[in-house]
User: Which sequence fits this backbone?
């Protein structure tokens, strides 16, 4: 995709700090990190989101995420790692190329708004109906 910044990184037109690379994926340091070690994993083939990415590329991204999570554990000793993947502008996906964020976290880091929310019991009938509708669509 000619206007995609991540495709330009894959093609070597824009430099990055490569952390891991194989035939299907590229992982590199986020230049706007939430925490030290914040890493992005992308498929080398352009796919905008979860609905477009091929199964083999999706598998490759998540296999790489496990490898990188282990490397982060050894190199940075985080207390946890947030994995964040957004799909669409409505959830603030800024680069329209599928990517997975790996964000090392310490216990005393400020909360990430996606990892903390108020637990409010839902309407069980609505939950059941919605679950059935999604299951039926599988």
Assistant:
């Amino acid at each position: 995709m000619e206007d995609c910044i991540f495709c330009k990184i894959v093609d070597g037109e824009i430099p990055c700090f490569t952390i891991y690379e194989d035939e299907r994926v590229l992982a590199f340091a986020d230049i706007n990190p939430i925490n030290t070690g914040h890493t992005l994993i992308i498929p080398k083939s352009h796919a905008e989101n979860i609905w477009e990415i091929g199964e083999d590329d999706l598998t490759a991204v998540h296999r790489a995420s496990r490898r990188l999570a282990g490397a982060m554990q050894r190199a940075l000793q985080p207390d946890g790692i947030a994995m964040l993947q957004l799909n669409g502008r409505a959830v603030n996906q800024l680069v329209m190329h599928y990517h997975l964020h790996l964000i090392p976290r310490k216990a005393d880091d400020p909360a990430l708004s996606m990892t903390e929310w108020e637990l409010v019991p839902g309407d069980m009938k609505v939950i059941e109906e919605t679950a059935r509708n999604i299951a039926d669509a599988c």
Observations:
- The longest strand covers residues 100-105.
